[in-house]
């Protein structure tokens, strides 16, 4: 009993048996004589397509396009010029651009904090891997 489907890397998938081998007295049969596919949870139909990274990118591009359109509308509706001063620098910007610039700077601060935490976790994981290798190296052979 083999299937044509390959498991998606990074996931655990059990082979799906051929639908005709799964016939039982309670399995409904359509008028053409073919068995209707069982509706057990966890069993996708044979024609189901697996999700790919490219399909995720396609969905992300669509979402980001909508967000960019909303940002463009925001900037266009808040086009009144405002005076901006920062560390002795003075200038004139539209209100929408100034607010968007402030939001981007805030997002960068959050990104730097997250990056610091990720680096901290990687260093800790590296230290634990080294300790595990050292312990396995010095462990008595069984």
The 3D shape can be described as flat
Biggest sheet overview:
2 strands, antiparallel
Low-confidence stretches: 19-24
Radius of gyration: 29 Å
Task: Tell me the distance between the termini.
Answer: 39 Å
User: What fraction of residues sit in β-strands?
Assistant: 5-15%
Order of SSEs, N→C? HEEH
Q: Label the structural class.
A: mainly alpha
- What is the number of beta strands? 2
Describe this structure in words.
The structure is a single chain. The protein contains two helices and two strands. It has helices spanning 53-77, 95-138, and strands at residues 81-86, 89-94. It has a two-stranded antiparallel sheet. β1 (81-86) and β2 (89-94) form a beta hairpin. α1 runs antiparallel to α2 (95-138).
Descriptive tags:
142 residues; two-stranded antiparallel sheet; 2 helices; mainly alpha
Topology:
Elements: H1 53-77, E1 81-86, E2 89-94, H2 95-138
Helix pairs in contact: 1-2
Care to give the gist of this entry?
By secondary structure, the chain is mainly α. Helix content is 49%, strand content 8%.
């Amino acid at each position: 009993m083999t299937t044509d489907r390959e498991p998606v890397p990074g996931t655990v998938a059990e082979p799906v048996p051929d639908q005709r081998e799964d016939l039982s007295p309670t399995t409904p049969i359509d008028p053409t004589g073919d068995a209707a596919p069982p509706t057990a949870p966890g069993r996708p139909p044979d024609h189901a397509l697996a999700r790919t990274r490219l399909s995720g990118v396609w969905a992300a591009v669509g979402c980001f396009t909508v967000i960019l359109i909303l940002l463009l509308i925001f900037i266009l509706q808040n086009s009144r010029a405002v005076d901006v001063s920062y560390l002795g620098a003075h200038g004139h910007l539209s209100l929408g651009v100034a607010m968007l610039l402030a939001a981007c700077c805030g997002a960068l601060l959050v990104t730097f904090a997250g990056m610091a935490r990720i680096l901290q976790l990687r260093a800790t994981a590296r230290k634990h891997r080294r300790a595990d290798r050292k312990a396995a190296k010095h462990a008595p052979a069984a």
